[in-house]
Each structure stands twice: as structure tokens, then as C-alpha cells.
Amino acid sequence: MTAPTAARIAEKPRQSFWGLWNIGFGYFGIQLAFALQNANVSRIFQSLGSSVDDLAFLWIAGPVTGLIVQPLIGYHSDRTWGRLGRRRPYFLAGAVLAALALVGLPNTGLLLLAAAFLWLLDASLNVAMEPFRAFAGDMTPDDQRAQAFAFQTCFIGAGAVLGSLAPALFNWLGIANTAAEGVIPPSVRYSFYLGAAAMVLSVGWTVLRVREYSPEQMAAFEGAAEEAHAAQHEPLVYPRSGPFWIAAGTVLLALVAYLALDKQLYVLGGGLVVFGAMQIGVRATSAKGALAHIVSDLAQMPVQMRQLAFAQFFTWIGFFIVWIYTTPVVTAQAFGATDATSAAFNAGADWVGVMFAFYNGIAAIAAFLLPVMARRIGNAATHAVALLCGASGFVGLLVIRDPGLLLLPMVGMGIAWASVLSMPYVILTRVLPPRKFGIYIGIFNFFVVIPQLVVATLMGGVMRSFFPGEPRWTMLVAALMMASAAAAMMLVKENARASGE
Q: What is the dihedral of CA 170, 172, 173, 176, to 10 degrees?
């Protein structure tokens, strides 16, 4: 069992191979579920009658949920201590709720109900997933953190391979991958049942096999420097920019109404208004709770976190576009099918699962090679190179029509994905105060979620206006976003302590 043994020790012990294994293993089930979502939710929505243009909007529940849930879970997990420890109660609760959502999602015959189950699934995955990043920081010393994130990335890759391949594997076993209109194919349903079981078992393994350090031990590890930091920590900051955000949101809402723009933009405008009202509210009341801490810490982000935020914004626009539109692009371009009930469409959707499995397999391998590269050129430059590999892969999805050759772009996508899951967090956890890993990683998720929200609200209108009936051009947009993210990474200034593992 991975466990601390001393009551007060000055230096955090290094983890063994199996210690790192146990710390990261829960991510196997989380990512298996996440892969099932990525590869099959568009297919489920189309099977239930959604048009391609509406897919992005139906995915909006996930980003909105993540925007709310992750910082709150981070804040509370920083302050939790009970029989199960600090982070583990959130792992377990998220796993159980996600398993219920995985069972329900493919068994509904109604599009809106399927969207509701997607919301529950995404909320639950956020509850389970957010503390895992902070968990790796809690349980490992500074110089072992890249290894901890590499193990997490490996399990993410392995879970994603199985999750992406599951429908095709069940079909190979003789379980049908087609069904009548409005019915989800049995191979997809069984895959989601597999995901529910894996979620509970793998997260349960981490919960049972790892005992977290107590608050007293964490205080000893953080030492005098951290205690001084805590003593000198500035009081809560109450930003004055609330009226600006309300005005910006109001203008956007008015433009949507006056110019008859895509109604999905109401979500974005409303979000800006809510954010501004939240800032005004905490300032007016001098609040001290979770919301006030989130607003205050957002205003006081370390400089490296601000620099990383720009790269994250462009990165996740690119990936979210690819996750939403790969199924309609591949089924139409490589399999010549747009009818969601046809055998050709479902064969193409299964092949998307194979493609996603392949890139996640590449990511699992690349996870252990990236730290080697980072020691030579630095974490930021390594991440920039990996993002350019992803951009080249997205271009490949635009131009390649042969199903077999579509695996080639997945190599670049896999390298980029491995880096996205590790390099930003290696940089980040080395400049954050350990006692605030949870809340800051939750805030960092804003720059994962906001771009997803932008895609979900804007991409449907972009499709209708610029690419009617041609979803493949979304891959060019994704490639340009990844190239922009790579350029933004070159502006990240790592200090000596964060210059590589």
C-alpha cells in the first residue's frame, strides 16, 4: 500500500513504481468513460435525430458543468480531511455518479434526456477528475512530479484505447452495431456498461491502495518557506471589473437579438453577465466563502499560469472541434455515409473509435518520452513542439480520405494529447503553493472549459455560415488553433525551478 509512515518529516518521500501506479490507476476508468463520451456521444445524438449543425450545442452541458464544478471541488478538496482523506472522497463520489450516467445515457430514447445524462456524466467526471491532478502533486516530491503525470497520462491513454475500441470489439464478438432509428446500437450500450464497471473498479483501487498524507504531514513537507508564504498571504482580492463583464455580456445579448444571430450566443452572453454579477456580489458583501476565494485567486494567478492560459485556450478549441466533428467528417469523407442508421455510417463511427484508440495508445507511449525531451529543451518548448505535431495531424484529417491512412494523423494527435495531459501541469505545480493545488488547478480548468464553451456556442453557426454540408473544414480551424497554441507556449517563461524534470 502506498502510505506515509512518519508523523512529521521534512522531506516528502519518493514513491516507488507501484506507488506511482496506485496514485494514477484511477485515471484508467475515468478516461475510459471520457473516451466513450468523446467517441460515441455525437453518434448517440445523431441516432436520436440530432442534425450535424446542432451537435456542438448539445455538447454544451459538459463545458458549463466543468466551469462550475472543478474550481468548487478544488476549493473544497484543499480543505477536506476525513476517514477517506483529502481527495479520495471526491474520486469515489464522482465514480459512482459517472457509472450511473454511463448506464443511463445509451438507454434513453429521447434526445433531451440523452443531453441530461451527458450533463450528469460530465459533472461526475469533473468531480472525480479534478482532484487527481492535485493528488499527484500532494503525493510526490517536486523532482518526481513529471513521472507521476507520466503514469497518469499512460493510464489515460490505456483507458482511452479500450473506451474508444469497445464498440468495435463488441461488434467483433457478434454484438450488432446497428439499430432501428431512435435506438442506440447494442455494441454501444454494452460499451457504456463496461465503462461504468471500469470507473468504479479502477477508482476504487486508488481509494483503497493509497493513504493520503495528513494535514500535519503536509504542513511539515511544505516547511518554513510555505508557512511564511501562508503567514504573508494577501487578504482576499475583490476585483472591480464586474461592471465591465456585465456590460460586455449585455452588448453581446443585444447584438444577438438585434442582428438575429445564432441563438446559441445567448449562452456566451449570459455567461459574461453572470461572471460580472458574481464579482460585484462578492465585492459588495466582502464574502469569505468558496466563491470569494475562487474570484480572488483568479485575480492573483501566478505569471506562468497566466501565460499558460493563452496556450490552453487555443489548444482546447482545437481538440474540442476534433472530438465533436471527427465522426461526421470520417463517416462522410471516408465512408460516404450521412444516414446514422446505415451500416456504412456505423462502420465509419466504429473506425473513429479505432482512430481515437490509436492516438491514445500513441499518447501512452509518448508520455514517458516527453520528460526526456523536456530535460533537453525545457517543458514549454517541448509542449510547443507537441502542439505542432497535433496541428499537422488535424490537417491530415482534412485531406486524407482513405480509412487506413487516417491513422497517420493520429500519431501527431497522440503526441499532442500526451503533452496536453502532462506538460502544463508540470510547469504549473512547480510554481503554485502546495496548499492551493486543488483550487488553482480548478481555476486552470477555466481555460479548458471556456474554449469548449466558445466552440459549443459558435461552431454550429460557423458551420452553417461557412461550411454548409462540409464539416471537414472544421479540421482546418482546429489546426490553426493548435498552431496558435504552440506560438503562445513560446511566450511562457519558466523559472529555474520549472525548467525541466
A: 60
Return the HEC string of 380-419.
Answer: HHHHHHHHHHHHHHHHHHHHCCCCHHHHHHHHHHHHHHHH
CA–CA distances in Å: residue 49 to residues 151, 260, 306: 40, 25, 41
Distances (CA, A) of 76 to 97, 138, 232, 238, 432: 18, 15, 22, 20, 17
CA 212 remoteness from chain centre: 24
CA trace torsion 420, 421, 426, 428 (10° rounding)? 70
Lowest mean pLDDT among 54-68, 79-93, 135-149: 54-68
Supply the pLDDT for residue 59.
Answer: 61
Q: Which of 1-15, 424-438, 448-462 has the highest mean pLDDT?
A: 424-438
Query: How buried is 342 (Cβ within 10 angstroms: 0-12 exposed, 13-18 middle, 19+ buried)?
Result: middle
| Strand partners for 210 | 2
Q: Which amino acid appears at position 301 of this protein?
A: M
Which pLDDT score, from 0 to 100, does residue 96 have? 93
Backbone angles phi, psi at 82, to 5 degrees: -155, -160
